[in-house]
Amino acid sequence: MTEISKYICLKEYVPVGMPKISNFELKTDEIKLTNEDEVMVLNKWISVDPYMRARMTEKKNYMEPFQIGKPMDGAAIGKVIKSNSKNYKEGDIVTSNLGWRDKFVTQGNNVKKIITNNMPLSSYLGPLGMTGHTAYIGLFKIGEIKKNQTILVSSAGGSVGSTVCQIAKMMDCKVIASTGSDEKVEWLKNELKVDHAFNYKKIENLVLHFKDVCPEGFDLYFDNVGGDFLESAIFRMKNFGKIIICGRISQMSATSAGSGLKNMAHVLVKRLTIKGFLIFDHENDTDDFQKDMKKWITEEKIKFKETVYEGIENTPKAFIDLLNGKNIGKMIVKI
Ligand code: NDP
Fold first, then answer.
1. Residue 226 Cβ contacting ligand 1 at under 6 Å
2. Given CB 3.0 to 4.6 Å as the disulfide criterion, which of 69, 132, 187, 251 pairs with 127?
3. Rounded to 5, what percent of the chain is helix, strand, coil?
4. 146 and 269: one domain?
5. Using a 6 Å cutoff on CB, does residue 31 contact ligand 1?
6. Per-block average pLDDT, block size 10, for the chain (335 residues)?
7. Cα 240 to averaged position of ligand 1 atoms, centre (Å)
8. Mutation test residue for ligand 1: of 51, 155, 328, 331, the one with most atoms within 8 Å of CB
9. Closest residue by CA, ligand 1 atom 15
10. Which ligand 1 atom is nearest residue 201's CA?
11. What string of DSSP letters covers 219-260?
């Protein structure tokens, strides 16, 4: 029997600037199981993520651009509702990279069963998913975080950033957190117990602010935003400090390329290490992360918030609102 699948596709590429709802389109298709080993999955939760902005341009990046008029993709969690596969049965919970659609048919090897062990399903898109893994690998493997360091985190009220802040607190670090709303500042201070949180939109001179709140400077900077913020952080790094380049969200929808870093002399004189990474290179390094993160969530050492939009038709709005900072914690869509 056929079913109707609703999905979101891109109508046109958006080379610069903030995407608009009109750049997206909701379409439908008839789907059914035809071949052996196929499964039909009803998505329950869909992730929207900043990296998807880069896929909305024709420019070659580390991932292919989305195809115009075709279903967009991204992480999702769903339930198998029909199966021709001996490996899956109705009711199995699976992750896939087939987001931005409510239902789909695919070969069994395109989905992965998860045993949730009493963890909330949606946490597999947040702290137990790609963003938690990014925080973990970024801090331990790329930044080689040490106990009692002083660490600056940007976009700290988001999914990666809030996880970074909490892991760093567990390592007895002093955490300075930057975010874009007073509500997120309160959450970071009162619930996540960072040492100092501030709304960067209200700060006139970041370098002076850093000097005020953290005169000793930073050992580590976990950079989620790039641009002028990165330049300001470089001014306040300690000798031999490390900067983990995780994201560049301040540049992603910018309308001009900006002026570039003007203080590379500080990188030289302070002997800084600046290191970028992509979590996709660490897909086979998840065992310690899964084990630690499940334990930390169970022990409430890692707390997480979600901003939930409902309905496949609201996925473009969730994505645009994510880029505009309307999320606290992980932005997800409930189907
Ligand atoms: P977030 O939950 O942090 O959401 C994005 C946030 O970016 C918004 O909430 C907003 O918060 C902030 N933001 C938007 N515009 C600006 C700006 N101009 N200046 C400063 N902040 C801005 O997203 P994620 O946790 O999913 O991702 C965080 C970062 O990590 C992103 O840069 C992403 O690309 C990167 N990333 C990198 C990976 C890798 O493999 N290297 C993997 C996963 C994510 P605010 O209110 O603070 O402005």
1. no
2. 132
3. 30, 30, 40
4. yes
5. no
6. 96 96 98 96 98 93 93 98 97 97 98 92 97 98 98 98 98 98 98 98 98 98 97 98 97 84 96 98 96 96 98 98 98 98
7. 26
8. 155
9. 250
10. 48
11. EEEEESS-HHHHHHHHHTEEEEEEEEE---HHHHT-SS----
For residue 107, the enclosing domain spans 3-126+305-334
Atom 18 (ligand 1): residue with closest C-alpha?
250
Measured CA to CA, the distance from residue 313 to residue 168 in angstroms comes to: 37
Q: CA 73, 95, 85 angle in degrees (round to 5)? A: 105
* Element at 16 (helix H, strand E): none
- Is residue 102 located within the same domain as residue 153? no
| Domains identified in the chain, total number | 2
Q: What is the CATH number of the domain that holds 320?
A: 3.90.180.10
Same domain, 93 and 138: no
Say if residue 181 is in the same domain as residue 271: yes
Tell whether ligand 1 has an atom less than 6 A from the beta carbon of residue 246: yes
Q: Answer yes or no: is 294 within a domain.
A: no
- Examine the domain organization and report whether 112 and 44 are in the same domain: yes
The whole-number pLDDT of residue 97 equals 97
118 and 196 inside one domain: no
Grouping H, G, I as helix, E, B as strand and the rest as coil, residue 176 is strand
Atom nearest to 327 CA in ligand 1 = 9
Tokens of 139: 């801090």
For residue 15, count CB atoms less than 10 angstroms from its CB and return exposed for 0-12, middle for 13-18, buried for 19 or more: exposed
Q: How many residues does the chain have?
A: 335
- Ligand 1 centre distance from Cα of residue 306 (Å): 14
Query: Is 26 strand, coil or helix?
Result: strand
pLDDT by residue (tens digit) across 38-62? 999 999 999 999 999 999 999 888 8
79 and 140 assigned to the same domain: no
Decide: 149 in ligand 1 pocket, CB within 6 A. Answer: no
d(CA 77, CA 130): 13
Q: Evaluate: CB of 326 within 6 angstroms of ligand 1.
A: no
- Spatial CA neighbour of 129 closest among 47, 66, 51, 244: 47
